Amino acid sequence: MNSRGSTNRLSSTSNFRSRMSFLMLSMFSTMAALYVAGRLWLDSENRVYLIQELDRRTGQGRSAISVDDTLKIITCRIIQADDFFAREQQKRLTALQMELGKASQEGFVSKHLLDNNEKDSKKKLLAVIGVSTNFGNKKNRDAIRKAWMPTGPARKKLEEEKGIVIRFVIGRSLNRGDSSDRAIDDESRNSDDFIILNDHVESPQEQSKKTKSFFAYAVEHWDAEFYAKVNDNVYVNLDAIGAVLTSYLDKPRAYIGCMKSGEVFSQSEQKWYEPEWWKFGDGKS
């Protein structure tokens, strides 16, 4: 048998252990909540930093990550944190809302408003057309300028009213700075209708690379619905191509072109010899 005193001592010990267990559990829960909240806050800050770095490197400028976006991230993290952490971050949210008002006055507006303003102030181009040419084809370029490619004020009017930009596309000579390079520089200064790819060396074997370089350059410098490439022995009907491209505006990611079919020539002495013939289809076709 246990005495009454022993029973009281056992009851006190049990209550003490229960309170200690509850206290330890509460402390552990609080620490865990603070740890999770801290990690969430750090994660949101890291995301903001990475977005800012990405936009800075792609030339979007300081309005690419807006204060609105930052507020959304912080608000999301507040919902996931505990009540104590939420109260602390609510103060931060209030401060950022004040910063938003100040930033708006200084011209740092939300990305949504900036996009709308840009659309209103600068119309998106219909097409950027690159005319691939080389050093020995000045006669071709002069013929194109007389036939279908406007020059001077007429070319500017075409860009503003029709949304079509046209430029000759050429790289650099293997012997950088030689007479070929100087001739192109002089022609470019007089006509102002060239894209000179300084990182590309003109070579018959590098035409596909030249085309890719042109597309990269065009996308970087102009915002257009379409980017087109033709050669300097092709005569373009601008009205017709404008009508065709307009009919494809509601079809995103459209690729329009002439794809060759038939035999792929694998012998170097053949006129249409393809150096990488082995990449094409079954039975060299």
UniProtKB/TrEMBL annotation:
Q: Which cofactor names does the annotation list?
A: Mn(2+)
Bilayer topology annotation: Single-pass type II membrane protein
EC number(s) reported in the record: 2.4.1.-
List the transmembrane segments.
21-42
Recorded hits in InterPro entries, A to Z, give: Glyco_trans_31
Task: Kindly give the Gene3D superfamilies that the UniProt entry links to this protein.
Answer: 3.90.550.50
Q: Where in the cell is it found?
A: Golgi apparatus membrane
The terms describing its cellular component in GO are: Golgi membrane
This protein's pathway = Protein modification; protein glycosylation
Instruction: Keywords in alphabetical order, please.
Output: Glycosyltransferase, Golgi apparatus, Manganese, Membrane, Signal-anchor, Transferase, Transmembrane, Transmembrane helix
Gene Ontology molecular function, alphabetical: galactosyltransferase activity
Q: What class of enzyme is it?
A: transferase
Give the protein family.
Belongs to the glycosyltransferase 31 family.
Q: What is this protein called?
A: Hexosyltransferase
- Organism this protein belongs to: Solanum commersonii
